[in-house]
Amino acid sequence: MVKTGLDRLLDRNDIIRNRRIGLIANHTSVNADLHYGWDLIRETGADLRIIFSPEHGLFGVEQDQEPVSKVPSFPDRVQSLYGDSSATLAPREEHLEGLDAVLFDIQDVGSRYYTYVNTMVFFMKALDGRGVEFMVLDRPNPLGGLSVEGPGLKDGYESFVGVLPVPVRHGLTAGEIARLALSHFDLDLELSVIEMEGWDRGMFFDETGLPWVPPSPNMPSLDTALVYPGSCLFEGTTVSEGRGTTTPFQVIGAPGVVPHELAAELDGLPLPGARFRPLWYRPTFNKHCGKTLGGVFIHVTDRQLFRPFATGVALVTVLRKLCPGFEFTRGVYEFNSEHPAFDLLAGSASIREMIEGGEALDTILDSWAEEERDALEAVREYYIYGES
Description:
The chain is of the alpha/beta class. It has twelve helices and nine strands.
């Protein structure tokens, strides 16, 4: 079984004993026996002074883009890093006073959009030049670390869903992302990564032996994480990405869509490792709440071949044609109103403009191939783990 950075830290508890500690964590900060990290860290003799919680809160209570509330009857001092403005995404000066080290221990899901590691990077930047050690307790990338997919992040499109110029499926662990961020932003920061034991880049999460704790309210399973790098693009459209169902991001649909027509068109496309089952569903909240929607369920039949971002772009392209009233949404998305949400997720306006311009799907899917090759070479410099 893989040993996480948290479990390895607990084996070497002299590292933090008697030190004044801040902890960035949520409910995924557990050891192999599912005990919470904040309790275990305190038992080492560390002076745990403050816990920082990311989007969704310490226990994953809040939905996406909801300001985080205080946890009732929780004895520790907890400070949210996700409030009602972009100013809340980084710690305030008074939160850092007196700390010797800040620990990061949250399970990521391997997509550039997913905000937990972006919270980590924002925090690292806040510690620049302060002389406070930043320690990442590393955890697996659930999608493995062999594949990258999708375009990089272009200048001017940085946001809370895109902080570093990596592909959408980045293939890195949190510790590796921290190493990249240290270099990319040229930070004056003492960074330590407590490495995992037994993880290699070819492992998906269900091969680690670790318990899956749903990282956020709409990430119930590894199957969700597998499709998320593509299905999350629908957050930037009027199509439902399945929030309000028990299988978010695996079901995609909208009013007026004919399920069998959509499934037939998708099954005729070169999208390896996936099949599309036609269905109807009814979200209980979020987009089209209470309405019966036509759509498809994405079944990953071969996760080695499956290309989630390409599949998501293909779905967007087809649904723009088949879905009555399809639109790319405008407005505020993750505290940013400068660009459409789809562009923030995709990393630029290029893909949306090609879709709206009627470019052939093959042309669109080929448009980021060179970026993928370049990115795979660039990120290798920050690898901690090899292949078995």
